[in-house]
Amino acid sequence: MVKIGMLNGLRVREVMTEALLLLRAEMPVDEAWQILHDGGVSGAPVLDARGRLVGVISNYDLADPRRRVPNETTLVRDVMTRLVYAVRAGDSVLAAVRLMIDEKIHRVVAVNDDGSIAGVIVPMDILRVLARKEVGRLEYIDLRSLAGG
Question: Which of 5, 7, 44, 86 could join 21 in a cystine, given CB atoms 3.0 to 4.6 angstroms apart?
Fold first, then answer.
């Protein structure tokens, strides 16, 4: 059984995704969507022209037609979420989990002590670690055999 203490002992840096896609606030949303799609991710941090973190964008932000500006090229800055939730890379994974639950979000930026971006942590990162810890105890069931077919 996975215990809460295990999550408390794990640090964000141990489970976060370090290889990040970073998007620019001034890029068109169609270009941003293509980058996310090609990278196989559902969202990314957004940087301004000076390289500062100014938001986060997800496929949800890009897909919502209500956020498009009529008759103009919509830019990432027009649809991104400006409120960035972050944890330190040295924080416990449980702190990131609690933040995601409390704020009803699916992506938390991990920052280094100097405030630079260290990575991103998403629920799948945490599930991956939990599955590895329990790998010897997993048993898969073929539901077809239970249905008699």
Answer: 44
